[in-house]
Amino acid sequence: MFDSLKAKLKSIFKKGSTLDEESVYKKEEPKQEPVVSPTTEKETEVPEQQTVEPPKEVKAEPARKEEPLPVKKEPEPEEKPAKPVKGKGKRSSQMLSTSLLGKKIKDDPLDDILDELEVILLESDVAYDVVQEIILGVRNNLSGKKYSREYSLEEVVELAVKESVGDVLQVNEFDFDAWIEQQKRPTIIMFVGINGTGKTTAIAKIANRLKGEGKSVVLAACDTFRAGAIEQLTVHADRLDIKIVKSQQEADPASVAYDAIEHARSKMRDVVLIDTAGRMQTNNNLIAEMKKIAKVAKPDLKIFVGDALAGNDAIEQAKVFDEAIGVDAIILTKIDTDAKGGAALSIAKTIGKPIAFVCDGQEYEDISKFDADWMLERLFDQAEA
Ligand SMILES: Nc1nc2c(ncn2[C@@H]2O[C@H](COP(=O)(O)OP(=O)(O)OP(=O)(O)O)[C@@H](O)[C@H]2O)c(=O)[nH]1
Fold it and tell me: One MF term from GO for this chain (predicted)?
């Protein structure tokens, strides 16, 4: 998963270690007052700096003035924050130097690294606007800042990139489980997307998940365009022992949705999952059909299912469905075979809709809730393994 992007990012972090740095030294011996660096964000070290006063034994030996003890040239106490815990919650600002000593990354080599990062992200199918936002974030995190000597530049660059990517991912998150608990019964969820993206499989995975939580589920086989689609959903319904409402091929899909919802209402079922036809998103009939189903079924949630491998195309498809019926959330499939990660990184930001789940295989259990930490762990922490 995301292997190519991970490997390329790793090469960028390594370049961090060869970055030109300039050491920053104090201009003159500080007096006893602590000097606060402009980049200091926490004053937690102040007490330590105040105790820089001579240790006890010096006080005890005032007479030895004639032979001064060698004064340490570097009395400047470096701040001692905990070593970075790679991953969760770490901010690059915690690596900033709070003392007069530190190191700064020079701007020219930083520009080279950022240029390379831009190419890597674009090659990985990250949407252009999202790439620019990530680059700007990294620049803001690194440029002109003074870092504690405690960290290698490799660590500093990695954390700056990770933080910037995390900011882009954190735009909006969607807790499906919490959401569904607050809904009326039956809750109606409609799935849209072009064919072959894994829509039917994703519906089966969600159905299995809901069933596992004790909810009763009805499937609505509204892809009446393709006979195979009805059969495929029926196979899942049988395997999962879930009710399916279906009709003949070429029946009106909106009427199938209506029947499924009526069935769920009369039998007091919890959730109706509506499968819809695929085809290309540019097909006007398809879009008209989606609008009609949405009008009749009045879904509580409309989920766009996109194939992660499609990269920027998945984003374009999502836009079309969003304009037509208003998408509320996204499921990205086949993430297990996606080396680039571009769609996962940029679809939510570009469409302004959250990724609810990602699917990473063909088994019912191969579905995970998506959030920024999930993505960051796979892109960065596993890259160190
Ligand atoms: N590797 C992998 N394969 C998947 C995943 N999700 C679905 N597939 C496979 O992708 C193929 C298409 O999946 P479907 O669920 O039939 O796709 P669909 O969007 O319903 O397609 P239509 O019925 O043609 O509209 C199937 O072979 C699935 O087993 C996934 O997360 N990972």
Answer: GTPase activity
For residues 216-238, give the mean pLDDT.
93
CA of 304 to the centre of ligand 1 (A): 14
Report how far residue 196's alpha carbon sits from residue 237's, in angstroms, rounded to the nearest whole number.
Answer: 19
CA of 291 to the centre of ligand 1 (A): 23
Over residues 268-273, the mean pLDDT reads 98
| Ligand 1 site, residue 299, Cβ cutoff 6 A | no
Burial of 381 (0-12, 13-18, 19+ CB in 10 A): middle
Q: Is 311 annotated as belonging to a binding site?
A: no
Q: Which atom of ligand 1 is nearest to the CA of 367?
A: 31
Give the domain ranges of the chain: 3-25+32-52+85-169, 176-372
pLDDT of residue 151: 79
For residue 68, cis peptide bond before it (omega within 30 degrees of 0): no
Residue nearest to atom 13 of ligand 1 (CA): 198
pLDDT, the chain, mean: 81
Q: What is the Å distance from ligand 1's center to 97 Cα?
A: 50
The reply to whether 336 sits in an annotated binding site is yes
Residue 69 confidence (pLDDT) above 70: no
May I ask the CATH architecture of the domain 3-25+32-52+85-169?
A: Up-down Bundle (1.20)
ipTM reported for the complex, 2 dp: 0.96
Check if the beta carbon of residue 5 is closer than 8 Å to that of residue 339. yes
Of 48-57, 225-234, 293-302, 325-334, which gets the smallest average pLDDT? 48-57
The answer to whether the CB of 197 is under 6 A from ligand 1 is yes
- Residue 302 is encoded by which pair of tokens? 């409309």
Q: Check whether 147 has a pLDDT greater than 90.
A: no
